[in-house]
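Lab notes, practical 5.
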Amino acid sequence: MSISKDKDLNSFIEKEVIKGTKNVKGKKVAIAEIIDNTIISLPVKSIYDMDEIIKKCYFFIVKNHAKQPKFRYFLTISLANNSSDLMVQLAQEFARKNGLKLIQYSIYPKTVRSQLLSMKEIKKIEDYNDSIEVLKKARNEFRKRLVALKNLVENK
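Output from the prediction step:
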């Protein structure tokens, strides 16, 4: 990505995405990413609560492990307030098919709850609207699977 594209994306993020959103206060835990079979820590610079645009949606700005671009941007949606291995299994197939990442992350560390988040990286301005749609579909698909599992258990 060239420097001018970085600046365009940065200004789009500042002017269109995070403007008017609420910055989540408090300490933020780094996100781990596996690159070439090595776990890399990506420090979270800031998290914005985008609940007014999409329910249970957050925007993450993380420091990149590489020199360019300096920051990476992730649009995320909460699939479950309390994450578990079962919840991850329910969401995993859709996430793989649609290029989403799943993480168990505590947005508000004082609550000691790890939410299951589905993340989509924003690399270009055009990715933003597509990512919103994919994340909404992921949440709907996850909810359908959860209801189907609940109905299966109740009928036994």
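Observations recorded by the TA: The helical segments are 3-17, 85-97, 127-154. The longest helix spans residues 127-154.
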